[in-house]
Amino acid sequence: MHEYSIACEIFEQVMETAKAHGALEVRHIILEMGRLAHTNPEQISFCFKAIAEGSIAENAEFIVEKIPPSMECECGYTGTVDETQIGKNDELLSELLEYIAAFECPVCGKNARIIGGRELIVKSIEIETEVEK
Asked: What protein family does this chain belong to (predicted)?
């Protein structure tokens, strides 16, 4: 299960950042996840919570924001993939996007290539540095 190893890396990043800023508690973590990352957000969240038990991140809210795939065309257009070209089923969409090399450019109609959508980025970490009175 690669979600566990990803959650471990996220936990390490969160803890390093929290300690560097004198955190007493980690409150929120926002992870940006590309739709082509081939990871399950619920499993990452579950694994993170298990790893964080007993730490200052134990009660942190773990939020995953999905990022749509992006494309670029030789005409100069860059933007997100129009997922309606494929359909609405998330699992099918992810599998299809991984294997399809190009989509139609909405500007010129030529094939555009996929350039983004595999990201896994810790977007923000909210911490508490002082005990509230």
From this structure: Belongs to the HypA/HybF family.
